[in-house]
Structure formats: C-alpha cells, structure tokens
Design brief:
- The complex is a heterodimer.
- By secondary structure, chain A is an alpha/beta fold.
- Chain A folds into 2 domains: 317 residues, Alkaline Phosphatase, subunit A; 56 residues, no CATH class.
- Chain A is built from 11 helices and 14 strands.
- In chain A, the strands form 4 sheets. In chain A, strands 6-5-7-1-8-11-4-12 form an 8-stranded mixed beta sheet, with helices on both faces.
- In chain A, helix 9 runs parallel beside helix 10.
- Chain B folds into 3 domains: 169 residues, no CATH class; 89 residues, no CATH class; 149 residues, serine acetyltransferase, domain 1.
- Chain B has 27 helices and 8 strands.
- In chain B, the strands form 4 sheets. Chain B has a two-stranded antiparallel ribbon. A two-stranded antiparallel ribbon of chain B has the order 3-4. A two-stranded parallel ribbon of chain B has the order 5-6.
- Classes of the chains: A alpha/beta, B mainly alpha.
- At the A-B interface, helix 6 and helix 7 of A face helix 12, strand 5, helix 21, helix 25 and helix 26 of B.
Chain lengths: 421, 542
C-alpha cells in the first residue's frame, strides 16, 4: 500500500486547480441543480456535529413574529422563499448550495441515546452496537492510500463516532483543536533513541513469542506498531496543521477551535480521509436559550459557510458531503428560565455538497409549535440518503456478532434532496 | 533549626533504606508476621479447596492436546499476575512480588488470593465491573451520581461478604430515595426525566434477565426471535413486574398502575399482566410485584441465577467468560460452570467463595495460550470447552492504566497510599481510559487493538510521564539505587512484567546499561521501561 498523496502532491493539486479558477465562473453562474447525470458520487463526508441539540427555531427553521419564536428574527437567503434565523448571514449567502430537512424526528430525547441514533441511524439496543455513518463509509468505500486513520473526530465530544460491530478499527481517531499538534504521534525522544527503543522492544517480543509458541504476528501487535509508526512519520499528518493555510482563509473559517476543525476537515478530505466529524458543543440550552444560540451562531455561521465556499472553489464540493446536525431539537415553548428543553418531534438538519441539490427544503413545522409535522423524516432516512449520495446501496446487509442481518440503513432515501434520484 | 535538619535527614535516610530494602529483598520480621496473619486465614481444610478439586475434574482436557502433550502450567508469578488483574484490576507491585516469594511454595497462590480478597481494592474493582452489567456506563447529568452511589454501595456489600442473592434481591426490590437507599439506583438510572417519573420497564427487564439470569430475553422486545425459545410475550410479561414502579416523594415506590404496551399496529396501549417466562412455581404469591420477581430470580431452584453469576465472575477473574457471550448461558452448560454454580448456591451465594473456587482451580494455573474466538455456534461451544489452556485476553483499558501506574511505583498503590498518589491515579486513569476508549457493558466482546491505542501507549502522556526521569518514578529509582546492572534489569522486569528476564533478555539489556552513568543510566532505564510497557506481553493477560 503505497502513499499516493503527500503534501507536495496536494500543493501541486491545489495550485493546478487554482489556475483554471476563472473557467469556474461560468459553472458557478449555472444553476446549482443542473449537473450531468453521470457525475461520480461523493467520496467523503464531513459531519458538523452540534452536540447538545440545537434549537431549530434559532438556526434553520425560524418562525419570526410567532409566539414560539420568543423574539428570534429571520433573514432572507440567496434562495427566494427560504429564511434562516438571524445570526447566519454567511450561510444565507451560500444557501444555493445548502438544503434543509425541517421535519426531522427522533425517538430518543436523551443525549447519549439520541446521539447514538443520530450517528448510527439505529435506535440503540443492548445487544448490538451499531456503526456510525462515518465507519460505514470507511467500511464500504475503498481506502485511498491513507496512512492516517480514514475516520477522524475533531474536538471529539462525549460520544464520538464509533465502528460498533464493524470493529474498533473503524472508530474515529480523536483529536483536539488543530491549533495544537495531533496527540500521541510525537515520540518526544531523538530518532536514534527511538530506534534503540524499538530494537529493545523486539527483544522482549521475541522472548514472549518463544515462551508461548506464538508467531510474533499472531496477536497483531507488531503489525499495529508498524502502522502506528507509518502514521507517525506520514506527510499526511500535515493535513491537521491548518497553519499552512493562508491567514485570510483561516480568518474566513473563524479563529475558533471549531473553525479550525472545519478547515482541517477540508484538508483531511484531500489526503484520502473518508469521514470527519467536527463537534461544536454547548447547544443544550435549558437556560437562556437565545443568548447561547446567538453566541454559537458566531462560530457556526462563518465556519460552515467558509467550508462550503472553500470546497466549491477547490471543486471538491461535488465529492464532499457536508452534514450539519445535532441529536434533537428544542421545544417551541420557552421555559421559565428562558431556555428550551429537548424536543424530538420536529427539528432541522442542513446538508450541502456531495450529490445533494441545493436550495431545497423538506418539510415544515407548525408556527404554533405543534408536535405534528407533515412528511416526517427519521435519522434512518437521513442515513439512507447520505449513503445513496455516496453511491452505496442502503439496503446492503452486514451481519452483526449476534448473527443478525443489519441493513446499512433501514430508512427511505429522500430523493428530492438528490441530484440524481 | 538544627534539630529539624537532623529529622529531615533521618526521614530521607529511612525512605531510602526502605526502597533499598525492596530492591534487595531481605525478609524482615514484620513481613513474616504479616505472612502468618494471612496464613491463619488460609486453612487447607477450606471447603473451597474441595470445590476447586471438583471443578478441576469437571474442567475439560482437550483431546487434541492430551494426545500430543500434557497440560502445562504457568509459573507462579504469572498466575499471581492473572489473579491481581482479575481481582484488583492491576498488576502486583514489586513490594507484593517480594511478599509472594517469601511464602512457602505451596501456599503462595492461596495466600495471595486471600490477601487480594481481603483488600478493599478487590471490592471496589469487582463492584465497578459488575455494575457495568447492572446499571450500564451512561454518563447523563444525574446518572453519574446515581451510578457512583450504586457502585460504592455494591462495593460495601461485597466487602462485608453479604450473600449475593440478598444483594440482588435488594437491587430489584428496594424502595426509597436514591441517596439513602443506594440499591434503588438499579431502578433510577433507567428513569428518563423527560418521560416522567417512571423507570424504563423494558430496559429493567432486559438487565434483570441478562445480568442475573444469563438470558438475552430483550432480543424479543420488538419481535419473536427466529431461533431463541423466548417470545415477545415473555419479555413484556417480565417488564410488567416494573409496571407500578415510579419515583415519588418517598423515592422509588410501587403504585397501582399496570404495565401498558404500545401496540404499534393498532396504535393503542394494551395492558400486559406480569408473567415469568418459566418456573412459575417459584414465584411467591404475596408481596409487591418487584419483591416477588426478586424472589423468583434468586430462588435456589432457579439455576440460571447461579450459572449467570458464576459465568460473569469467571470472566472478571480470568478475562473471558466460560460461556460466550457472557449474558447468554441458555445453551448446553459446560460441567465446570455447573460445578461452580452449584457450589455458589449451596455455599450461601458467598462471592469470595466463588472466586476462591476459580482461583484455586487448575484453570487459572494452566499455561497461557492464544484464544481463538468467533464463528458459529459449534465453534462457540468448542471454545467454552477450551480451558485446557488459559486463554489470553487483552487487558481492559483500566487494567492497562492501572498496570502502567503500578509498574512505575514499586510500592503498592492502594487505599493506604497517600491521598495525592490515589488522586493522581484517578485522574491519569480517567484521562487514559477516555482516550483509549471504554467498551462499557460490552467489555467482554473481542475488540482488536487499534492504531490510536497503540499510539497512546507509544507516545501518550501517561507512559511518558510515568517513565521519564523523575524521582517518583520507578525507572529513575532503580537507576539510582540498583547496585549493579543485572539487578536493575531484573527489578524492572519484575515491576513491569511480573517475571525475571530470560538469559537472552538479561544479556541484551545489561549490555545496554553497561558503562552508562548518572543521567545516561537513568535515560537507559527509562528506555527499558518504555520497551517493557510497549510489549505485547504487558498489554495482555497471558
């Protein structure tokens, strides 16, 4: 398995793509929805994970002037007829690339179970640990010569994406703020000394294998240590280092951990990472909902909008699917502390890129805050749609350790969102 | 002032001497008396020894193996390491290894077992591990406190040696407030405040059957299982025992409500009557529903209770259950498990007795072999009979962090340790386990090691901090105090791998240390520690 990508290739690639930028203007002017039906499916997904459950009313589904809005206003977007909550001007400008599902529903009002459901598309159960969507992508799609893990969780929250029954090798690799070095990949000693340590380790390994009549390989330790070393010395690690990007671009994403995370996510897709989740926490606004959401919007809006624009300018938006979601929404009713509580009846998810159409809205919520929504969608439906966009058949089955056949997703593809249904 | 200097000097010299005493073992009088104390609690007429003998007879000797060679046994220190990992979740300290080696040869393992069982660390560790099956590892805002309260209560019960059937009855049937009746947290952790004051009856029914009876009845929650004998009615009949349970002003209490099940096809709620899936004759007629269920679960005729508990405790001690998966003992029962379960029941459900049965048996002394799992049911049953050797298993994350901390300390880290040491252990452990990944209540599923885990051991903070040159770290102490290179290498091997180096290893590392002085010697010892901690041997229970 040779490494096809390294930093130099990346630079060459990005430089190459910057020159014919002018030629792109024509394409940018063309309607977003009109693409050839033979386009390649998406190759990577970036999940912007809003941990805690964002309020749909203060993000993607405002009801300005209504009782449930509690004073939250709305702004117009680049797509006529679609409004976003105030605080998202940059995303509003990019709306032609973004679609919304406003009729998402969940059955799990608890953070942990809700997160599992959202990330796996399955209701958590005591016997089977379901794989997250990112793990499924890595499992289904071929490796692209990545030395670094193909499933990455930046600013991993309490329940990062996991491989579940596909195996812990599909768990997301967890990193922190890209402003800091990637954890655990620096030896902290000189190369000579490190080599000596590895020689010493081989002596101990041989003794153990001899005593137990094992082949040194049997327990997989040496192979893993090799892979770990390959990762430690890989040029691809630089994809985590956003300081290599121009300052103006870093400012566009926002000088926040989340903004840097989104920028690193884009860089990671370029070295063959299949699935990246970037977590933005703090949405669990049981107290003073509006203030919390106003503050978070200043982080989410620039980061998400810059990510979409950056991908588009690099001609990678078609092959990279961006999903912005949390585990549930928040109650239309504002509680005594000015907060909103957990609400699973109707909330919003935003999607951009990949094989998705832009400027589409699925479902609508009751301006009076009623539970009932027409055309409800589940996380299983969302997963089926994501898989379809990646060119993966959602009905394909894996077999769980309890020998139960498990479909990649049991949901129905939301074909209105896809360019090619 | 002068007097203080003298005092300080005396303390420093005393500390140094005590460390040196450990590096050059000389049996001291106090150690001998400690040994006698424990010995008096280890009568060879212990009834458990008979149970262990019966167990040995029931243990299979794989035909394939006997044809080729005899069953081989691991050396004592390896067995001591297995027991320490199983009972207190860490490896023996150098201090403890010296103690073990001072005991008469034939008494070493029994005395070591007794010493571990008398250690409060055992109760704490066993409670934490058992609690995974009882209350899960979820970390919601209220759950953390409830879970912690539950675990410390369970540890108290284990330490006090309370019969285990009574402990389980209290979990299922307790009434009262979660703070002063900690057992009620078995119930309260399933309450989802958004859903009202009721516990989740379905999850409770699932936990009761899996954890206490070794039945995966909750597979039947949504549909009749195609192969298992359990039907949906069995599951919901059991859940109905928790129907009246609610959280009121007095804490967990039982009202008059009945369990209602949403029939999705009809769109309405149907009342379900409480019903046990088998053994209806053991169900008492009197009492509130949960108390009746508790009595049924722990009825001496309900063999599933003993089998499920013995299988789980076997897994805690040995790293893998006797029957896999751990919470499904419905199939053909291996004779060894029946022997253990019967002895557990007839001995009054004494947890320590159950553990002694395993610890004194041959199974834990047999030579370590690679464990091959997975596959179809034929292979699984073959596996449950494969204890002709001790199957190797990967250390759990908390065992690994416990072992790293213990290896870098020389003296035992336990409840007697200074508060700062224990606090540091807790903090480093939770950081390490967080990054390593905790399998929660699925901890006995086979999970291969991952690259990030390997990286964490090779370059992670815990290993770096615990091996670097620092007077509080064992590597540095050994470098400073060992009289010669051979002793230094041997001491490091004992502290990290609980064994002495092979001649080849000894030669290699003595050569590494040769001629190195001061700082250089300390950094060589640091490298030795790094290599030992990063070995396959360290990361496995073998």
């Amino acid at each position: 398995m040779s490494c096809d990508w390294n930093r130099r290739d990346c630079l060459r690639w990005t430089a190459g793509s910057a020159v014919p930028w002018l030629a792109n203007i024509g394409r940018l002017l063309a309607a977003e929805g009109e693409r050839s039906a033979t386009r390649a499916p998406a190759r990577s997904i970036i999940l912007l994970w809003l941990a805690g459950g964002p309020s749909q009313l203060e993000t993607f589904d405002p009801h300005p002037g209504s009782r449930i809005a509690g004073g939250t206003g709305a702004i117009s977007t680049a797509v006529k007829g679609i409004k976003l909550a105030e605080g998202y001007p940059r995303l509003a400008a990019a709306m032609r690339s973004v679609s919304l599902i406003r009729s998402m529903t969940s059955t799990e009002p608890d953070h942990e179970r809700g997160t599992q459901l959202a990330k796996t598309g399955y209701t958590p159960d005591a016997v089977t640990v379901f794989p997250s969507i990112g793990a499924i992508c890595c499992h289904e799609l071929p490796a692209q010569g990545a030395d670094i893990p193909r499933h990455v969780s930046i600013l991993a929250g309490s329940w990062p994406s996991q491989g579940g029954f596909l195996g812990s090798e599909y768990d997301a690799f967890q990193t922190g703020d890209p402003a800091h070095p990637v954890p655990d990949v620096h030896t902290g000693v000189s190369n000579a000394r490190y080599r000596r340590r590895l020689e010493d380790l081989a002596v101990v390994e041989r003794a153990f294998a001899a005593r137990h009549g094992l082949h040194a390989e049997t327990l997989g330790h040496a192979r893993l240590a090799d892979q770990a070393r390959r990762m430690m010395s890989s040029e691809q690690l630089r994809a985590f280092d956003v300081s290599e990007e121009p300052a103006s671009l870093r400012r566009a994403y926002g000088e926040t951990p989340f903004g840097r995370g989104c920028l690193a996510a884009r860089r990671l897709t370029e070295v063959g990472v299949r699935a990246i989740e970037v977590t933005l926490s703090g949405w669990d606004s049981h107290v003073d909902n509006h203030a919390a959401h106003r503050k978070l919007a200043t982080t989410l809006d620039p980061a998400m909008a810059a990510l979409i624009q950056d991908l588009r300018e690099r001609e990678r938006l078609d092959t990279t699917l961006v999903i912005c979601a949390g585990e549930f929404g928040r109650t239309p009713k504002i509680n005594a502390l000015g907060g909103r509580d957990h609400w699973t009846a109707a909330f919003s998810v935003a999607l951009a890129g990949g094989a998705m159409r832009g400027g589409v809205v699925i479902g609508q919520t009751d301006p009076d805050g009623g539970r009932h929504v027409p055309d409800p969608k589940t996380f299983a439906d969302l997963h089926a749609t994501i898989l379809k966009a990646l060119g993966i058949n959602p009905a394909k089955e894996n077999v769980s350790p309890a020998r139960r056949p498990v479909k990649l997703s049991e949901g129905n593809v939301i074909s209105e969102l896809l360019q090619v249904a | 002032m002068c007097r203080r200097d003298w005092l300080f000097g005396a303390i420093a010299v005393g500390a140094l001497l005590s460390i040196i005493a450990m590096l050059f073992p000389r049996a001291t009088a106090t150690r001998r008396s400690a040994a006698r104390l424990v010995a008096s609690r280890t009568p060879s007429a212990n009834p458990m020894v008979h149970a262990a003998e019966a167990l040995d007879k029931a243990l299979p000797v794989a035909r394939k193996h006997t044809a080729r060679r005899r069953v081989e046994f691991a050396d004592e220190l390896t067995v001591a390491r297995r027991l320490a990992l199983g009972l207190v979740g860490t490896i023996p300290s150098l201090e403890e290894i010296r103690w073990i080696e001072e005991q008469p040869a034939e008494e070493r393992i029994p005395r070591w077992t007794e010493r571990l069982l008398a250690d409060r660390r055992w109760a704490d560790y066993a409670a934490e591990r058992l609690a995974r099956a009882y209350v899960g590892t979820e970390v919601g805002p209220f759950l953390v406190y409830r879970r912690r309260r539950f675990v410390s209560w369970l540890a108290e019960q284990l330490y006090a040696g309370r019969p285990y059937d009574a402990v389980v009855r209290e979990m299922i049937a307790a009434e009262g407030h979660w703070t002063d009746k900690p057992a009620t947290n078995f119930i309260t952790v399933t309450i989802e405040p958004q859903h009202g004051p009721r516990p989740n009856a379905a999850r409770l029914a699932g936990r009761v059957t899996r954890a206490f009876l070794g039945l995966r009845l909750d597979c039947a929650e949504c549909h009749d299982h195609p192969f298992a004998p359990w039907k949906q009615d069995d599951f919901h009949g059991l859940a109905a025992f928790f129907g009246p349970t609610r959280q009121g002003f007095g804490g967990i209490e039982d009202g008059q409500d009945q369990y209602k099940l949403l029939n999705r096809a009809m769109g309405e709620r149907q009342q379900v009557d409480p019903k046990v899936p088998f053994g209806a004759e053991w169900l008492p007629r009197e009492g509130h529903l949960r108390a009746r269920l508790a009595a049924w679960v722990t009825d001496p005729q309900n063999k599933s209770f003993g089998l499920a508990t013995a299988n789980r405790v076997w897994a805690l001690v040995c790293g893998l259950p006797l029957v896999e998966p751990i919470d499904d003992v419905t199939g053909e029962t291996p004779p060894a498990l029946s022997v253990l379960a019967d002895d557990f029941a007839s001995g009054g459900y004494d947890m320590r007795r159950l553990i002694r049965g395993i610890a004194f048996s041959e199974a834990i002394r047999r030579e370590g072999r690679e464990h091959v799992a997975k596959g179809d049911s034929a292979e699984v049953s073959a596996l449950s009979n494969s204890w002709s050797a001790f199957p190797m298993s990967r250390l759990r994350p908390e065992q690994l962090s416990g072992a790293i901390l213990q290896a870098s300390s020389l003296v035992t880290i336990d409840r007697e340790s200074p508060v700062l040491v224990r606090f540091a252990r807790l903090v480093s452990e939770s950081q390490f386990v967080g990054r390593f990944g905790d399998a929660g209540d699925q901890e006995f599923d086979e999970r291969p090691e991952t690259i990030p885990q390997r990286l964490l051991l090779m370059n992670g903070q815990l290993v770096q901090e615990r091996t670097k040159q620092d007077l509080s770290n064992a590597a540095t102490r050994i470098a400073l105090l060992a009289p010669d290179d051979a002793t230094a290498v041997e001491t490091a091997y004992l502290a990290v791998l609980t064994r002495r180096p092979s001649p080849a290893e000894q030669k290699h590392f003595v050569a590494r240390l040769a001629g190195a002085r001061r700082n250089e010697r300390q950094s060589r010892l640091e490298d030795l520690y790094w290599s030992l901690i990063n070995s396959t041997e360290f990361a496995w229970n073998h």
